[in-house]
Amino acid sequence: MAPRKPRASSRNPELIRGIGKYSRSKMYHKRGVWAIKAKHGGVFPRHEPKAAPPKPAEKPPKYYPADDVKQPIPNHHKHKPTKLRASITPGTVLILLAGRFMGKRVVFLKQLPSGLLLVTGPFKINGVPLRRVNQAYVIATSTKVDISGVSAEKFDDKYFTKEKKKKNNKGESEFFETEKEETKALPQEKKDDQKGVDIPLIKAIDAVPDLKTYLGARFSLRAGMKPHELVF
Amino acid sequence: MPFKRYVEIGRVALVNYGKEYGRLVVIVDVVDQNRALVDAPDMVRGQMNFKRLSLTDIKIDIPRLPKKKSLIAAMEAADVKNKWENSSWGRKLIVQKRRASLNDFDRFKVMLARIKRGGAIQQELAKLKKQNAS
């Protein structure tokens, strides 16, 4: 017969988890194994296994551990990116709370697959480049910037990973010399990416009065400001 | 120094403690030495301790325990809302609420405005000083 679709549900309805309605012999009859056997002369048809490709000869292992080694149970669980707070939407002005740019007000672009937030100053306004930032170290304000002219599609976590340093296995004489610091200049491509994101952003920012000076200023608590009572 | 604001039927008061904090209510009856029956257009009539009320200058003309409709009519006739919002006490509360609701960008703009105003004042002052000196 031509290949048929496999049956969607089991022929044996569940009474309780683990217990079906019909016994083994009743199920044998329901599945029609008797009819298949009758068609093939009293034997259930058996197909020869497909010829497997010859496996290369395995060498016996060099080392057998004395005691049984426990194998770890494999875990294929993949983490979802951190849930984004409802107050953080593309174009929101965020206040950074920690790190080199502590207190800076910055524009949020998008959430990266790792869960970190992609953020830019813009660079010309406050010196914050395209950067990844953790949601926990950020206050979301209710001020939004129009981000429709900006495309942040090409940025992902791989763009921000550090380059792996090449290991220099030199002799002992070189060991005592002071290592020359290789100052890495920012590649022109990254500078162009920054400009590509910033130019439409700055145009949108200039449209709102005082927003440019706002983004250029740092946030700080003054006397009498109670953070739990402030509306951001 | 005699008292000027009396607890009487029709006295408008501000609630200063509890669930109804900040609401303007009218004293509609007195329950006993400590409690009043209190009513407002958008509230279920209920009792409140006098300690929770701050009396205002506004008084409206109502009989004891008016119906809700006549209470609302009397408040409209006496124009309680506008009298309150134009009084210095009422204006202060409005300003406080506005300041508390400012967001971070608004606070920044207020700071710029204050600096600008201070600069303008200093300029005028300098001019006047120069006039005086000459």
TrEMBL record, chain A:
Q: Does the keyword Ribonucleoprotein apply?
A: yes
Q: Where is this region: Disordered?
A: 1-21, 170-193
Question: Which InterPro entries does this entry report, sorted A to Z?
Answer: 60S_ribosomal_eL6, Rib_uL2_dom2, Ribosomal_eL6_CS, Ribosomal_eL6_KOW, Ribosomal_uL6_N, Translation_prot_SH3-like_sf
Q: Name one GO molecular function term.
A: structural constituent of ribosome
Residues spanning the signal sequence? none
For the biological process aspect of GO, one term held by this record is: ribosomal large subunit assembly
Q: Cite the Pfam families for this sequence.
A: Ribosomal_L6e, Ribosomal_L6e_N
Keywords recorded for this protein, A-Z = Ribonucleoprotein, Ribosomal protein
Q: Which residues form a coiled coil?
A: none
Q: What GO cellular component term, any one, is given?
A: cytosolic large ribosomal subunit
Q: Which residues form the Large ribosomal subunit protein uL6 N-terminal domain?
A: 7-59
- State the family named in the UniProt similarity comment for this chain: Belongs to the eukaryotic ribosomal protein eL6 family.
PANTHER family xrefs? 60S RIBOSOMAL PROTEIN L6, LARGE RIBOSOMAL SUBUNIT PROTEIN EL6
User: What's the protein here called?
Assistant: 60S ribosomal protein L6
State the species of origin.
Phoenix dactylifera
Upper lineage is: Eukaryota, Viridiplantae, Streptophyta, Embryophyta, Tracheophyta
TrEMBL record, chain B:
Keyword Ribosomal protein carried by entry: yes
Per UniProt, the keywords (alphabetical) are: Ribonucleoprotein, Ribosomal protein
| Domain Large ribosomal subunit protein eL14 span(s) in chain numbering | 45-117
Short name of one Pfam family: Ribosomal_L14e
* GO MF annotation list: mRNA binding; structural constituent of ribosome
The keyword Ribosomal protein is assigned to this record: yes
Q: Give GO BP annotations, semicolon-separated.
A: ribosomal large subunit biogenesis; translation
Family, as annotated: Belongs to the eukaryotic ribosomal protein eL14 family.
Which PANTHER family does this UniProt record tie to the protein? Answer: 60S RIBOSOMAL PROTEIN L14, LARGE RIBOSOMAL SUBUNIT PROTEIN EL14
Q: What is this protein called?
A: 60S ribosomal protein L14-2-like
